[in-house]
Design a protein that fits this description.
The protein is mostly helical. Helices cover 68% and strands 0% of the residues.
Length: 243
């Protein structure tokens, strides 16, 4: 699943009290995880844990360490562990935009566990921060839109169905506006328009509107496939279906 790094903003230096050579080395290994030549997820978890267990668990500077270990757990598919680490990072973070970004990352792990409502809550918290970096804002709008569409398609939206359809349309539109090459958002917007044309969310629109919606849906889904051929099967597997 998509992982948007806020690591550059989270690389906060540890305090001088952690000047011991071994801890500094483990700290560097921990934070190298997302670099092209960085350590493996397993090595990152080991290094981050060594820093955390060095006695400074409550220090705000450790937000980057908890965050990085959460990313490593996510990479290994241990989403419960990643959620725990993101939660600890949120608790010690003292910088609102960084905290908002970690909420978005935690939502990514929550989505893997099909915890849709909790994920929507975290994505909304992230989006409510005006200083959330644009790459994360793009992801948050896209994933919130996809999640609400999924809940509608799975029959899990209940009496929120109509509002979720409207919200999904608005979020997907905003995600594509922010990043026209966001294949996931493009494809999902196409699916939504396709279903609107079929009258899946209420009365079918008029003939002209149906024709326009179908044309827009085909354009979105074709563009998404060109950007990333893997997007359709991934979304179909998640529950975003096509005719």
């Amino acid at each position: 699943m998509r992982i948007a790094s806020v690591a550059a903003a989270l690389l906060l230096g540890l305090p001088a009290t952690l000047a011991a050579q071994d801890v500094q080395a483990e700290h560097r290994r921990c934070l190298s995880f997302l670099k092209p030549d960085g350590v493996t997820p397993e090595a990152a978890i080991q290094a981050c844990t060594a820093v955390i267990e060095s006695g400074y668990q409550g220090n705000p500077a450790l937000v980057s360490v908890f965050y990085m270990r959460g990313m490593a757990h996510h990479a290994l598919g241990d989403y419960q562990a990643s959620i725990r680490d993101y939660t600890r990072a949120i608790r010690v973070s003292q910088t609102p935009p960084l905290t908002a970004g970690i909420h978005v990352q935690r939502a990514v792990s929550l989505l893997e566990l099909r915890q849709y409502d909790n994920a929507i809550r975290d994505l909304t918290i992230g989006l409510d921060d005006a200083e959330l970096p644009q790459p994360l804002r793009t992801i948050a709008h896209g994933e919130r839109g996809i999640t609400k569409l999924l809940m509608v398609l799975k029959g899990e939206a209940g009496n929120r169905r109509d509002s979720f359809v409207r919200d999904a349309a608005a979020d997907l539109e905003r995600a594509v506006e922010l990043s026209p090459k966001n294949a996931r958002a493009l494809y999902s917007r196409g699916v939504l328009k396709q279903m609107q044309a079929a009258g899946a969310f209420g009365a079918a629109p008029g003939p002209d509107a149906i024709k326009q919606l179908r044309a827009e849906a085909d354009a979105d889904m074709t563009a998404a496939r060109r950007l990333d051929p893997n997007v359709p099967p991934l979304l179909v597997k998640a529950g975003v279906v096509v005719r």
